[in-house]
Amino acid sequence: MDEDETGGAFAAAAESLRRVRFRADLSVAEIPAPRGIAPEAIAFAADVRPDSHGDSSGGTGRFVLLHDPDEPPGWGGPWRIVAFAQAPLETEIGTDPLLADVAWSWLGDALQAHGADHRQRSGTATKTVSRGFGSLAADGDGAQIEVRASWSPVVPTPAHLDAWAEFVCMLAGLPPGSEGIALLHPGPRRG
Question: Would residue 158 count as lying in a domain?
């Protein structure tokens, strides 16, 4: 495949991602893609139910589509997606020993539900529980779940971006079809 064909494939994939429409309670915007990872990349950031200042206490995420015609080792092809999602939790949920397993399975479920064919999915699911001290003591205890993942799309279709968006919402406590319903965990408890 020559340079015009590979550049055209990336341009078509990027344009198809730019046309994706998201549920009303998820704000998604294209952001500068990281440099130096692949010759071509496009990136998006998401915030669950951001406030009037653009800040989100419900959850956030990042999605990056990478393209390298040289097919780097471990990719299994010329395309790779790198994704991130995090959300605050009630402290009791953050101590659940199965939380990381459940969060990871939700990503797989979202990819499957959207028909986002892929291979070589890998990543981490990290749960943290924290307690503030000194001037942060009034914040009380808090918990958070964070998932970092990557996978190689068989074809870089919008289904992958849709699946990631659904996953970000699920992690934030908004199951599919829950637009307009209150968050299950609106953020860390204070005091």
Answer: yes
